[in-house]
Design goal:
Structural class: alpha+beta
Number of helices: 4
Order of helices and strands: HHEEEHEEHE
Largest sheet: 4 strands, antiparallel
Distance between the termini: 97 Å
Strand order of the largest sheet: 4-5-3-6
Length: about 180
């Protein structure tokens, strides 16, 4: 091989090697960091040797209990005091007035009040079987527990009145409308 070609290839190889070493240093803002890299999170301890991650299936009774809990409505929070935010209403004839918005209300239909919880639960089961959202609300009345069977809640009084009329047709039981608390 030609000696000039050998020198050129050797020079090119040296330049590439220097580039590989020094270009990352230049791109890393001129130097290496003396700090060691820090772990973002700690590694947990090894689990015990008898650890098992297998899934244990629930029996049918546990599944039914979970379903009945999911169908029972959670109590709603009703705010009686006004919300701090004031909303302007514009009336083109009278200028601008301010109205205060109050919290949301919901409505339920109460179908009965029982001294025996089993009777209340039987009615709830019958209502749920017909597709209604029924539940028992326990209330202390003069030291005695009362179990009130209620259906709902509904967002508007009109919707609750329609449910009450449907229940009267279907079950022959008159109910009363109450605010949901």
């Amino acid at each position: 091989m030609d000696p000039h070609l050998q020198q050129r290839l050797l020079g090119a190889a040296i330049l590439v090697a220097l580039g590989v070493v020094f270009i990352p240093l230049l791109l890393d803002h001129g130097g290496s960091s003396s700090e060691a890299p820090q772990l973002r999170e700690e590694i947990p301890e090894q689990p015990p040797e008898d650890f098992s991650s297998s899934v244990i299936p629930l029996n049918e009774e546990a599944i039914e209990a979970l379903r009945s809990e999911a169908l029972t409505p959670a109590p709603a929070i009703v705010r009686e005091e006004p919300i701090a935010e004031e909303l302007p209403d514009k009336d083109p004839n009278q200028g601008e007035t301010v109205t205060t918005r109050t919290g949301l209300n919901a409505w339920v239909v109460q179908l009965g009040s029982f001294a025996d919880e089993e009777n209340a639960q039987r009615l709830v089961a019958k209502l749920k079987g017909a597709g209604h959202s029924a539940y028992v609300d326990q209330v202390a009345d003069d030291g005695n527990a009362q179990f009130k069977v209620r259906v709902g809640p509904e967002i508007t009084r009109e919707q609750a009145a329609a449910v009450m009329a449907e229940l009267e047709r279907s079950f022959g039981t008159k109910g009363i409308l109450l605010k949901y608390r």
